[in-house]
Amino acid sequence: MAGFDYDGTRATAERLIAKFGQKGTLRRITNTGPAYDPVQTSEDFACFLVDLDQSQAHVVETLMQRGDRMVYLSTEGLSITPTLADKMLIGGVEHAIVDIQPLSPGGTVVFWQLLVRR
User: Fold this and answer.
1) Averaged over 76-82, what is the pLDDT?
2) What pLDDT is recorded for position 45?
3) Which of 19, 71, 85, 113 gets the most CB atoms within 10 Å of its CB?
4) Superfamily of 6-117 according to CATH
5) pLDDT bucket at 55, cuts 50 / 70 / 90
């Protein structure tokens, strides 16, 4: 029996996020130099995302706080894996990444679900 085509599912997710979402930026900040006087540099990675409001029903007894946003981040053209140390720019406004969950059935990341906070 043939396995499910997760690559096709990822392509569908990429297409839908690009069509109905928006452009954003994933910002990676790195420290160089001595630990007592590090130099921070940032590198921006263009991406496509869907920015979703969260209802108060989702806030109770979760990591979410009022004003947090749920972001579906496309894998299309993204050359890095998002981390909690990265920042997400949505409409030019920088948000901290609070939680990252890949949707990865069968080991193929279809998209990333991020909880972000201003």
Assistant:
1) 94
2) 97
3) 71
4) Bacteriophage SPP1 head-tail adaptor protein (2.40.10.270)
5) low
